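#help-structures

NK: newbie question. if I give both the sequence and a SMILES, will the prediction place the ligand too? trying with glutathione
OV: yes, paste both and it writes out the complex. here, I ran yours:
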Amino acid sequence: MRVTLYLRCRGIAPGTVDLVSTGLKTDHRGILVFTLPDNHPETLRLGTNDLTALNPEGRVPILLLPDGRKMTQSGPIIDLIESTLAPDDDITLLPTDPWIRAEVQRIMWIIAADTQPYQNIPFIIQAMGEWGMVKDNPTRHPLRLHFIRREFGAIENLLTRCAGKFAVGDSVTLADCFLVPQIRNALLAEIDLPSEFPILSTVWNNLLDVPAIRAVLDDAGGIVQPLVYDAEQFEVYNG
Ligand SMILES: N[C@@H](CCC(=O)N[C@@H](CS)C(=O)NCC(=O)O)C(=O)O
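OV: that's the protein plus ligand as structure tokens.
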């Protein structure tokens, strides 16, 4: 979703980057596993729908270049696409001023490095089932709530100085593209944004008024992150 938000907010012409939906399967723990889509030329060429054939991490997003090279990780993918575009000072999602640019990147890194991996539901399900972590509802697990609250608290503090209408100033930046999916996850965890993180909540409401962002959220199932594990299979696994 970070990359999709970037593409839409940057106004990149549809078709410049084709978005391909992955397939999905569920493993014995109820964890959703991304697969290569049936009948995609790359799936047919590889003769498997195992996503690790394209990305050894088994994660999305993956950017396929026409010459066959593949890039992974949302930040470098965005960077690579941006480097192919003519500069457009009207739609810059990464400001040129060094300090403001670093402020944007700081929020991106807090989300990508310090928040998302620790609240990732597959990781939480595995830690409960295999490494003795306290058992609880995966979406509201204390570990998940802890990391979202800890890092959103830090971001709220930063926003007192850098936020305008959006996370950094009055234009949408990559900081917002990284925040949006994490906020959806916080809403799935039933975190009360307005009372716990009022500035972040105001920024979120402003982001929801941006048509490009609303369109991406609508395509992805709404404002709240939909459930991303098979609850029945999880019950069987978790006992
Ligand atoms: N740091 C990676 C995170 C990618 C990531 O975690 N993607 C999720 C989907 S939103 C995924 O593929 N999860 C599957 C898994 O964790 O096995 C990035 O920014 O691209």
